[in-house]
Hints:
The structure is a single chain. The chain is an alpha+beta fold and about 130 residues long. The chain has a single domain (about 1-120), classed as PH-domain like. The protein is about 25% helix and about 40% strand. The protein is built from three helices and seven strands; from the N terminus they run αβββββββαα. The strands form two sheets. Strands 1-2-3-4 form a four-stranded antiparallel sheet, with helices on one face. Strands 5-6-7 form a three-stranded antiparallel sheet, covered by helices on one side. The radius of gyration is 15 Å and the shape is globular.
Amino acid sequence: MAYERLVLENRLSIERLDIFKNKVIAMDRKNKKLVLIYHTDRTQQELCIPLLQVAACSIIEERDQQDQCIKKIFLNLKLRNLIHHLFCFYDDSKDDVMEMPTLSRQAVNWSKSINIHRYPGNIGIEQEYIV
């Protein structure tokens, strides 16, 4: 599996992990690395991103033009070298609409966690959850 391969290749110590249908997001807080794996019929994304290279992290909601319903929810990572990576948490064509609130909360929590750990230095797990 791609996840195990990335963990072994990069010698990661994963502390936080979420596994969805065809995607995985994981964080190694000690080595400040983020793992993003997303597989579809058309796309394969397998990344190990150093958190210190992340310049900004935000949530993007793609909405329908007519009724303004949320179609997709992305975690948007902008790296210091100006490369952008999008990680899709919710896609109304693939995910049940009942899962959207949970997936939206997970996207927000991941964004907060990435924004905390993208700076040099260590932060205790207790302090992370206070924020």
